[in-house]
Amino acid sequence: MSTPVVIDLAAIENLRALNPGDQDAFLREITGIFLEDTPQRIAELEQALAAGDAARFSRAAHSIKGSSANLGATALRAVAEQLERQSHKEGLGGVAPLLGNLKVEFSRAQAELGRIIG
Question: Where are the domains of the chain?
Answer without folding.
Answer: 9-117
